[in-house]
Amino acid sequence: QVQLVESGGGLAQPGGSLRLSCAASGFIFGTFAMGWIRQAPGKGLEWVSGMSSDGSTYYTDAVKGRFTISGDGAKLYLQMDSLKPEDTALYYCGKGSSSVAASRIPDYNYWGQGTQVTVSS
């Protein structure tokens, strides 16, 4: 069955960096779009970034120029630089239902358990 396991979260200072990883199994990685979704305390789910099976990448405006999504083998990554306190959230890795990356939450049909990112001085 499909499994997604996130890691790499933690505490970072404003302006710092973190690299999230998502280990995927149970499907052929690279044939489906993948993405990162986050949920800040007291707020709803927010799509952060997506990567289509052809390698095309997409970002929400709030993280453009600071975050980079990538994939290698059966792992998805999110390099987060110039972190801000508003990036504090639980970050989920999601598997898309098609090969094309989407920004709609329902287009991700499998999720991991999430990894916590806290940005604070």
How would you describe this structure to a colleague?
0% of the residues lie in helices and 50% in strands. With 121 residues, the protein is mainly beta. Strands 2, 4, 5, 6, 9, 10 and 11 form a 7-stranded mixed beta sheet that branches. It has a 4-stranded antiparallel beta sheet with strand order 1-3-8-7, with no helix packed on it. It is globular. The chain starts with a strand and ends with a strand.
Task: Give the secondary structure arrangement, pairings included.
Layout: E1 3-7, E2 10-12, E3 18-25, E4 34-39, E5 45-51, E6 57-59, E7 67-72, E8 75-80, E9 89-96, E10 108-111, E11 115-119
Parallel strand pairs: 2-11
Antiparallel strand pairs: 1-3, 3-8, 4-5, 4-9, 5-6, 7-8, 9-10, 9-11
What fraction, in percent, of the residue positions are helical?
Answer: under 10%
Q: How many strands in all? A: 11
pLDDT averaged over residues: 96
Q: How is the biggest beta sheet arranged?
A: 7 strands, mixed
Number of helices: 0
Order of helices and strands: EEEEEEEEEEE
The portion of residues forming beta strands comes to over 45%
Query: What is the overall silhouette?
Result: globular
Give me the secondary-structure category. mainly beta
Cα radius of gyration in angstroms: 13 Å
Distance between the first and last residues' Cα: 40 Å
Q: Say what oligomer this is.
A: single chain
The low-confidence parts are none
